[in-house]
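Sample entry (214 residues):
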Amino acid sequence: MKKLFVSILCALSLCGASAFAQEYTDAGTWSSIQLVKSFGAPYAMARLEHRSFDKISATECWFAMAGAGYNFNSWLKGDLSYEYWSIPSAGNMIQHKAVLCFTETLKREGLAIALREKYELAYNPAADSFSNTLRTRLRGQYKAPDSIFTPYLMYEYFTNMNNGQWVRSLHYAGTEISLGGGHSLDFFYMYHLFAKAGSTAACHTLGLGYTLVF
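Predicted structure, serialized as tokens:
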């Protein structure tokens, strides 16, 4: 299992490795607070997130999310949510998003491999336009016995379903830290590749998240 875990992490870390040199490179932060209320198989969730850019000097965007989901069995769950986005970096654009998500997780001992497919329908009221995005995320993580740390690598690919083109990709290395009582922290570094002015740009991002499950 350890060899399998290392192989998966290496594969994840190599995703997008062909795009190292970029014409534009930035630095930013992502910070979030998330609440999850379990009712057995059903659950409710809420999230507030802020993202900075321009060498961490300005707000790129922030969003608030509320939704609900269901654990169908030990390896499959799905949820539906609404997100309100404010994007100062795009002329204070407002977006409303409906998000449908399914996650499959395979576990053995301390190893977990998860594949998530997320569909986003976004509406821009200023332009009266809709966009469709499919996000595919692969995550590998390992939790050692009696450890509060759960290190992980994660890769996510965004596809514009209106034209079939690549939008962005996220490459994570991080760890969750269990604080007990349903409280946890998530520290990560993310290499963010995205389309900009007809070429590919990059952003080095540091993230901190807090989650309460109750």
